[in-house]
Amino acid sequence: MGRQQPRVRRVYDPPEAADGLRVLVDRLWPRGLTKERAEVDEWPKDLTPSNELRRWYHADKDARREEFADRYRGELAAPAAQEALAHLREEVAKGPVTLVTANKDLTHSHVPVLVEELSH
Length: 120
Prior knowledge:
Blueprint (H helix, E strand, L loop, with lengths): L6 E4 L10 E4 L10 H4 L12 H9 L1 H16 L2 H16 L2 E5 L9 H8 L2
Helix pairs in contact: 2-3
């Protein structure tokens, strides 16, 4: 059996018992959401795209998708990000982990890149 994969959900969806450890993977706190309602256990900002990269990507998501993924992987290679990735891999191996994000379009967000990096 392969390595466990984290679940991915929107932070605005009601938490579920099956979520296990809830990890916010956005740089900014979700608009209009209280910490109590979010029920976030961890918020490792070192695993989120930098503000500069995030702004650059949002200016033209369609044309910049591939380059964004490459640049984000570069940011994830930094020592602090590698430490946070190692911690999250350990948590995933222990039990359910759910990555939560405010992104509406998960497919075109940073989350698939992060999930891929967690599987290494």
